[in-house]
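Submission sheet (multi-component)
Chains listed below:
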Amino acid sequence: MGGRAVAGSSGETSPVVDPATGATIAEVDLAGPSDVAAAVAAAKAAYPEWSTATPGSRSAALLALASRLEGRAAEYAAAETAHTGKPIRLATQFDVPGSIDNVQFFAGAARNLDGKASAEWDGLHTSVIRREPIGVVGSIAPWNYPLQMAMWKILPAIAAGNTIVLKPAEITPLTTVMLAEDCAAVGIPEGVVNVVVGTGPVAGEALIGHPDVRMVSFTGSTPVGRRVMEIATAGIKRVHLELGGKAPFVVFDDADLEAAIHGAVAGSLINAGQDCTAATRAYVHASCIDAFIAGVADLFTSVVVGDPTDQATDLGPLVSRRQQQRVAGFVDRARASGARIVCGGDIPQGDLAKGAYYLPTLVAGVSQEAEIVQQEVFGPVLVVLPFETDDEAFALANDTGYGLAASAWSRDVYRTLRAQREISAGTVWINDHIPIMSEMPHGGFKQSGFGKDMSTYAFDEYTQIKHVCLDITGQARKDWHRTVFTYEG
Ligand code: NAD
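Outcome: structure written.
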């Protein structure tokens, strides 16, 4: 914290485990409430100077950070793979370059944060709109994309002049700690970026509840998001929630079926399905559902499952044994209630048994009400259901509590235009599923949360609007005063 590494005071430690092998690769001290308080104090102390630093100097600091990360890209990718189990190809080609691009984007955006000179609305005053930072931001991130999630939290916050205390998931802290070290190394002032490694119930709740934290930004599951919101309510804090997802993937009868099949495989298996926007529910027109199932099953059974450090590996382990058991539980319960497991549905044996692996799994023959259709599984599992009419497809796509992302596949321009409007989600892809870009917002509808990460829309979360109203008459006695008190002359 404050640019320095400090041992946690809770007296507890937690192992960081490589989920591909089960080996402990690091042991971290867990932060207690007093560590959180010290980090918040460091952020509070840094705020006056950072919030009044010129946008140009904040931008320069971020550009220096981007250069440093470029030089360490391979180290970041290796560390990201080690604690999450994600394939090194994904870490190298998606997580790390995406994170660096985000830094570069916010370095530019930091210089384009303006308010506006407004107008003489009543003829007697002129108005100015100032966009100001909020103060100390308390952020909590999940384990699926530790580096990218840290970036999505830190960058818009500090580009706008806030200071931040970030708590990564305790099982994947390595790259967030590296990032904090690099922020210090490139001269981002002490206390602007602080990282506390601790558990959710202890360090997380202490952070959200701390009176000097003015805004809470959380990415994680919907149940924990609800708890975060409850705690923040007591302090009337601004809240930004990026929660779970259950993305529908709607394939119409005129779709390019080969594109849809390839899109479904990439969209559901990315990061072993531990992606809040992953394709999870494929609704496929009854006329082409058999061909779709056959095509996806064919590719699911051919992906290379194995050592995530191998460039040839497509699918690594899940993040932990706990997550493996959770995913297996969903599939086992679906199987027990009559679902057809087209392929996968198992924990692989042999050499892979030492890791938290789960095979790519395609499930059919389930009803819309089934648990596996309604709840977030967060694993390499795709469920396929049929539909007959467009109206039915849109109704089914919208029929869960979530609304983070969705895709629609069709060659009919009017259908795709209708899909954009009808599907209730923060991102709707047409004829693709997954791509994100720093310039565009990411965030949910419904129980997937509210507020946006990435893009200049993120500044709407991390800034507050001030109206400055200036008298332009220079008169000592103003007419409107007479509505309050009478005076002579
Ligand atoms: P999680 O909700 O279990 O944990 C997320 C973070 O919250 C962790 O840092 C954890 O330590 C912390 N936490 C846990 N209990 C807490 C408490 N009582 N108070 C404060 N903090 C607490 O989620 P996860 O399992 O780490 O991540 C997977 C979830 O994240 C999925 O639901 C996924 O959809 C969601 N996610 C959403 C987005 C998005 O942009 N919407 C992005 C990535 C992940």
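Remark: The chain has two domains: 13-242+455-468, 247-430.
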